[in-house]
Design brief:
alpha/beta, 11 helices, 38% helix
């Protein structure tokens, strides 16, 4: 079961505040290309596709065919990408197949059974195809803005699967090789823009702290935004498993 259940309000907030400008994702475009090595006719599985922003990006960037899979009906309702299937990472609605890669962005913490997910991805990917996981991991949050201004949210992050736990699940399923690297992204043009766009409903760690903790974090963020200059740059981990 997911840590939160996405309803229409959450999905709308996600679409409005979590979909990043392509101009801020240049490092992600390069990093994914280096590991995926897309070519004409490649097929990519986007698991937990949300509102489809990454599926659109990969289609445009690489010219690959992306199949999006998303369990939340509210997210699917806001996803314009096609093809799109309703489905869960632990029971993918696919026959044994030969996908050339899988993309999982900020969703592993919603998966109750990592071992089942890893086995499912092994089932549907061709041998040697990579699984690319974009995620914050416990203990690796120091370069993510949200946790700086909302330090109470770190205790939520500490309940997420650790890097070691995810690696172990995939190794047991037949993905023996893994690498991890932090990848930079421009999350907002300024700290003021970050504050204006911040929406608690779009962030699992913020939904799971108290109202008082959220209010205190927003106060810290808005106070700092008055004198801050330059873009907000965050670093999330890219875990690649083969």
């Amino acid at each position: 079961m997911a840590l939160i259940s996405y309803d229409d309000t959450d999905a709308a907030a996600f679409a409005a505040s979590r979909e990043l400008a392509r101009s801020g994702l240049k490092r992600w475009r390069y990093a994914v290309q280096q590991h995926l090595r897309p070519r004409t006719g490649s097929t990519l599985l986007d698991v937990g596709a949300g509102t489809g922003a990454w599926a659109h990006a990969f289609t445009d960037w690489y010219g690959v065919r992306v199949l999006a899979v998303e369990p939340a009906a509210a997210m699917r309702d806001r996803c314009a990408h096609r093809p799109l299937l309703a489905g869960d990472a632990t029971a993918l609605p696919l026959a044994t197949s030969g996908f050339d890669g899988a993309w999982l962005s900020t969703m592993v913490h919603h998966v109750a059974d990592l071992d089942a997910m890893a086995r499912e991805l092994r089932r549907v990917l061709r041998p040697g195809a990579p699984v690319l996981i974009r995620s914050p991991f416990p203990g690796r949050h120091q370069r993510i803005t949200l946790f700086h201004w909302f330090p109470e949210a770190v205790r939520v992050l500490e309940t997420y699967p650790s890097l070691a736990r995810v690696r172990a699940a995939f190794a047991d399923a037949g993905f023996p090789v893994s690498t991890v690297e932090p990848v930079a992204q421009i999350t907002a043009g300024s700290l003021a823009e970050c504050a204006d766009r911040m929406d608690r409903r779009a962030h699992t760690p913020l939904q799971l702290i108290t109202d008082a903790e959220y209010a205190a974090g927003m106060a810290r963020l808005r106070a700092a935004a008055d004198s801050a200059h330059g873009p907000v740059v965050d670093h999330l981990d890219l875990l690649v498993l083969r």
